[in-house]
Structures are given as structure tokens and as C-alpha cells.
Design a protein that fits this description.
This protein is α/β, with parallel strands linked by helices.
Amino acid sequence: MLREKWHSEAYVRAYGQHLSHRLPLIYCVVIFNALLLVWSFHRTAPPFLSVVLPTVLVFFTALRAWHWRPAAVRRRTSAMIVHDLQRLPQRCLMISSGFVAWALMLYSYGGDPEQDVIQYITAITCFAGILSLGQSPRTAVIMATAVMTPANIVFLMHDNPNRVVVVAVQTIITVLLLLITTAYHRDFVRLERSRLELSRHKHSIEDMAEAWRQRSIRDPLTGAWNRGRILVLLEKGLGAADGVRPWLALIDLDGFKHINDTFGHIAGDAVLTTIAERIARTPHIEACGRMGGDEFAVILRGGLDDARVHAELAMLAHAIARPIRLGDLSLNLHASIGYYRCQGQSISACLERADTALYKAKDLRNGAVVAFGEDDERTLLERQVMTRVFTTADLREQLAVVFQPIVDSDTGRPVSFEALVRWSPDGRRLLSPAAFISLAESTGRISEVTHVVLEKALNEFPAWQWGCTLSINLSAHDILRDDTAEWIGGLVRKAGAPPSAIILEITETALVRDYKRAAANLASLRAQGFRIALDDFGTGQSSLAHVHNLPLDHIKIDQSFARSLNSSENARAIIATIRALSVQLGLECTIEGIESVEEQVAARALGLRRMQGYLFGRPAAAVESRRLLAA
């Protein structure tokens, strides 16, 4: 019966503990009753029965009582307790049989009073044993049978007028006590199982709660702290009682997207996990975690000076740049790191400053480590002011559109005009796109800017009426909108312009976010008759793939090549190659940034006719551009 329940260690220990509080008591009862019989028969029984046998019985019983004391049972292993439980019936049978045999051997050495004592003590011992063995009914039955059967037989054989009644009463009481013991045992088993089940359920709930807690603070992929936990730890660091503020560093992996796209997400996940392990091994780091994507955050001890922090982060960048082995692959990437000594600002302010330093590091590339300095603080504050102004600006009133000609250098005649936007935050200054386009993107107003520019350009300067085309720049957000073709087509039709006279310019970097969607939207625009130009060609990534896969009509060579026309043979070779490529693909080719006659001559010598730059005209208002056409 017990074997079926010994699969549970907790159950075994509970079983043993319950018995340890009862068995020593019954053994003490046996010893006491044995001593009582010795006292009753020490004058009449021979020494062997009154001294030797009871001494052996008491000694062995005392050993069993000592063996089952609670303190000893608590120290035993489950296997040892199981061993004791398995041998309990045999040991109890030995003690009970020995006790009753010895008591019955004394029977003939006493008179009626002494014989009544033997019967009384035997019955009391049996009853006490049954009650003490409540957790082991099988042992209780064995003990009761071993004691009461021979005792009742002997008692019935003697001439006692009450022997039948006494035996009947003892037998009935024994049976009733055994039934009670069995029922008690069932209740004990049921109760213990319920308790263990509740305990298991409690532990299961605690484990689930701990698992959910870990999920709430750990990144599931790398096991590092997640963004929420890092922010909590940063907040604690900012509120440190000693006033020493920590350093915050943000890490971005240069080249991770290429690995993820080329070798798949499994390789990308392995890279992130390896990088997280390398960051965690960096000295003086108080916390590190994954902020999302391929960006990590590190909190360093505030007691370090700037030179030490820079050195530690430079070593970290070097560690991250070590090749990562993945099967037969050896993957390489760099880490750009921007860091900032946190001051009394909010968490968001600290993140913003570390992020600013990170962007400067990304511009430098190749594992650069950049600190956020005083100049950055002034620039950031100015940007915050500009952001507030731009957020509430009336773009329709404050945005102005200017037009720069693109000329045929052989004739000097404009063949196209590029619409460029300017923003006047105060009614006096006109800021170039470099000063506010990033604000438009961060504030979510970039599509509004494009809408205003397109609408004003179409209405103010209908270049197609002079046989020219009009170029409009589209942002990455514009290209990826689901309704791009519809809203641009609607504006152009409303202005009465032929789509073939409109050139939509995009940059290579604008395609990185979602190449497939961008290509699909450009194909829809081209299907309406619009012409597509790839702007700043040669400065992005995978340029030839873009030229091959996108529905293009024009290529515009970036102005950085024009500056090197007269000083770099490599620049001239690249321009010549781009020109030859455009001819082979049937694309128009324009070079930007021509500012001198020497650059014009050099570009023309390479076969380029379409040129744009200050040599031919600076961006001007629509009125001046019309005057240029009239001239």
C-alpha cells in the first residue's frame, strides 16, 4: 500500500514525520508495561524470565524508540525513511511477538491477580499500539493479531468465569480500533495528498509568477535586461543618495541588417546573443540590456572619469568587432557607441543625449566611440527650441518653394527645374532642408511638408508650359505610404500638369526601410506617367541593384563627385562608369554640384550634358525662374 505512494518525496517525509511522533511513545508503553510485569513477577518467576528476557526486550525496544525519535527522522534521506517503513511491520511483529510470548510464559508463575495484570497489560499494549500505528494500518493489524490471538487463547484455556466476556470485549475493541485506524489512515492520506497538491500548486504559481517577472524585465532572445528594466535601473542611478551619477552608453551594430538579411534571422539572433554576452563581460558595467532591434544600452559606474569610460567602451567596441563564428561562417560587424555622463535630467533627457552621441558615432562608422559634449548640448537645446517651433508652425504660410535649374550644358538652356523647400520660422530667415527635414520626420509632419511643396510648386511654377520638367523630392515616408500613387496623382491632375512633366526624385537611403513596398509604389507612379529619378547616386548602398530593379528614368550623380572632378582620377573614372551605365540602360544622367567652368568642362569631357549647380543658377523663387526662362 505504501509502495504506491512512495513516488513522492514530500509524501514520504510527511509519512515518516507522523510516525516519528507516535512510535517512540508506543515503544515507551511497551518498556513501561514490561517493567510493570517484572515488578509483579520478580519474586515468583525464575531469573531467566524476570531478568534476562525482559532486559533483552527492553534494550531492543529502547533502540527502536531511539531510532524513531523525530530529530533523527528529520535528518534521514527519503530513501532511508522508505527503508525504515518497509521494515516496520517485521520489526513491530518481532517486538510484539516477543513481548506477548514472554508475558504468557509468566502466566503460570502467578495467581489470579497476577494473571489479570498480564491480561490487562497485554490488552492495553495492543490498544495503545493500534492507536500509535494510525499511519500504518497494515502494521497495526499484524501487531494486534500477534498480541491478541495468543493472549486470548491462553486466557480462554484458564478457569476464569469472565474469560469469554473479557475476550469478546477485547476482540470487539481491537476490531473497532483497527477500523478506526484504517479510516484515520485514509483521512491522513487524503489530507496529505491535498496538502501536497496545494503545495505543488502554490510552487507552480510562484514559478509562473517568477517566470512572468523575468519576462517583464529580461529580453527573451539574449537574456539581458530589456528596455523597461534598463530605464528603471537608470532611474535608480539618477536618484543615488551619494550624488554620483552613472554613465549611459548606447550601442548600435553597424552591419547587423546586412547579416540578418543575407544569412537569415537565425544568424541574426545568434549574433545578438553573442554580442549581449560580450557586453556583459565588460568591466565596470553596472547593467546592460537590449533596447530593441540591434541597439543595446550600458550603464557604467559613475566613479569613472571620462578617459576611463572612453577606454572601456573602446575595448568593448573592439571586442564586439571580433569575428563571430557560426558554423562555417565568420560574421563581422562593428559597434558605434555614444555615451553621456548623466546629470540631473530626466531619463528621456539622458537617453536623448546618449542617442545624439550615438548618431555622431554612426556617421564616423568603423566602431567609433563618441561622448556627448558641451557643443552637443548647445546644439541639442537649439534643436529642442526648433522642434517646438516647427511642431506648431503653419507650414502653408511658413514654407517657401524655390527652384534650381538643370541645364543642357551645350546650349545653356534649362531643361528642368528642381523644386526645393525653405522654412522661415520667424518670417526673416529661410532655412534649408538640412535644418528642418529631420524635424519634420521626427514630428510626423513630413508628408504635410511634401504635400505643401508639391502643391505650391505645381501652382507657382508650371515649368511644363515652357517645355521643361519639374522635379520634386520625395521622403522615405512618402514612398512607403499605401496611398502614395493616389494622392500624388490627385494633386498633379488637380493642377492640370501632365505626369510626364513631373520627375519624382528619391534617394537610395530612403529605400532601406522597406525596399519591396517602395519599389511597388514607384512602379504605380511610373504607370501613371510620372518619371522617377534616383538622387545622390553613388553615396548609398547597393546602387547597381537599385538601378537594375527599380523603375527609373534618371540618375543624378551626387555633388561630392563634382567637387573631385579636377583633383581625383578615381572620381572621374566613377563618373564615366555611371555615365556609361546610364547610356546602356537608356537613362538620363545629371551631375549635381557644378560650381565652376573647370568642373563643367571636365564633366562635359566625360560625356555629361545635363548639369545642375550654382554655376547655372542658385535656387530662386518662381518669379525669377520664370524670368530666367523668358530670357
